[in-house]
Structures are given as structure tokens and as C-alpha cells.
Design a protein that fits this description.
Length: about 230
């Protein structure tokens, strides 16, 4: 079942002689439950793609459909609601609220939406990510790797249609990076979660089931892992 489709996706910045094309006619389809790494050098367009998929930015032309919703049809308010309910976002900086416990940080998207948390699902996610015993701690009491696990749990708590991860290990050492990638892959398998991960690091990309490579705003390679 297709969960994401991009059609002729183009993004330009500036105008005239200063115009820059960040994305140039991207066509991409992702199936539900796939774990896809989008790889490319700095400036290749991979982060721009992620921002458009997450409704943080809008394309110049083309179309994006996520879980049956055409993103171009959403105004700013509807895009914000869609992002909160359907898109899990993970960045290399954890963006946890320092005065809230890890439990409250994870549940925040649900609380903002005035939804009753599913305690069993929270415990399942926390167990998969190995932070069950840290739920009542404050972010400052956790290591960087543990904070990133909490950020991933927060992104998963709404059962999003797609999890978007932008260089999620960029702020971690090698050991923690490998652990986080293993946990993202485990979450994808156990929760049947669709994951689109952006990275410039081939070692990280090789943990995914499929690698899409972008150069100069175009997809130049799309291959399944063995």
C-alpha cells in the first residue's frame, strides 16, 4: 500500500540570475512500512525534500500525497494539524522541553491535540527504545543518546503515517549512532512504521531497506537493500 507519492516535485528559491533550484522534478513512491534512507551531499536537496514532506515548506510546483491527503490543498492551519497528527519529525537536535519529564515530552503532541494517551502504546514504544526506566526523569538527566530515543518516542506517539528523520544521529558519537539506527529499524519493523531518513553518511544509510540518492535536486539512484 502506497503511503507517500511525490509527482514532479520542484522547489526554487530566489529569482532571475540568483534563482536556485533545490528540487528538480522529483518522482518518488514509498510503501507503508518501508524504511527508506535519502542520501546526498550537503546542498543536494535532501533536506528540502524532507521539509516539504513534513509541510514545513511548500513546493514551487508538483504534488505530494501523504496517506491519501494532497498536501498542496492544505492551508497553513490545516498543514499544522496534519503535521502534528500524521507526520513524526526527528532532528539531530532533540528539542525536548527541559522542564517537562520525559513522559510528558513524549505525550506532548497528544496533549496539545486534547487526546487521551494510550498508556499501553507509550509503554510499548518506551520498551522498544529502552527508556522505560527514564520516563519520570528530566531531559537534562539523560545522555544524548537517551534524549534522542525520547525524541523518537515523541515522534511515534501519534502513530504517524510517516516518520521523517533529518540526520538523527548527527549529534551523537558512533556507538550511540549505531544504537539509534538499530532502534529506528526495530521501530519500523515492530510498529510497521514508515520511515524516511535523510543522511549524508553512507554507513547510516546502509541500515535502511532502500536507499534513494539525490544529486543537484534529482534522484540519481533508487535501490533496495539485500
Amino acid at each position: 500500500m502506497e503511503i507517500l507519492r511525490c509527482e514532479k516535485l520542484t522547489k526554487r528559491y530566489g529569482s532571475g540570475a540568483g534563482e536556485v533550484t533545490a528540487l528538480n522534478g522529483i518522482d518518488l513512491s514509498v510503501e507503508k512500512g518501508e524504511f527508506v534512507a535519502v542520501m546526498g551531499a550537503s546542498g543536494s536537496g535532501k533536506s528540502t525534500l524532507l521539509h516539504i514532506l513534513g509541510t514545513v515548506d511548500r513546493p514551487t510546483s508538483g504534488r505530494v500525497v501523504v496517506d491519501g491527503t494532497d498536501l498542496s490543498a492544505l492551508n497553513a492551519a490545516k498543514a499544522a494539524v496534519f503535521r502534528r497528527r500524521k507526520v513524526g519529525l526527528v532532528y539531530q537536535f532533540y528539542n525536548l522541553i527541559p522542564t517537562l519529564t520525559i513522559r510528558k515530552n513524549i505525550l506532548l503532541p497528544l496533549l496539545l491535540d486534547k487526546r487521551r494517551p494510550n498508556v499501553d502504546y507509550l509503554e510499548q514504544i518506551a520498551g522498544i527504545l529502552g527508556i522505560t526506566d527514564r520516563l519520570e526523569a528530566l531531559p537534562g538527566q539523560l545522555s544524548g543518546g537517551q534524549q534522542q530515543r525520547a525524541a523518537i518516542a515523541r515522534a511515534l506517539i501519534f502513530r504517524p503515517a510517516i516518520l521523517l528523520a533529518d540526520e538523527p544521529t548527527g549529534n551523537l558519537d558512533r556507538k550511540n549512532s549505531e544504537e539509534i539506527m538499530d532502534l529506528i529499524r526495530l521501530s519500523s519493523r515492530n510498529l510497521k512504521q514508515t520511515v524516511l531518513l535523510v543522511t549524508h553518511d553512507e554507513r547510516i544509510a546502509l541500515r535502511a531497506e532502500r536507499i534513494v540518492t539525490i544529486e543537484d535536486g534529482r534522484i540519481v539512484s533508487d535501490r533496495k537493500q539485500g
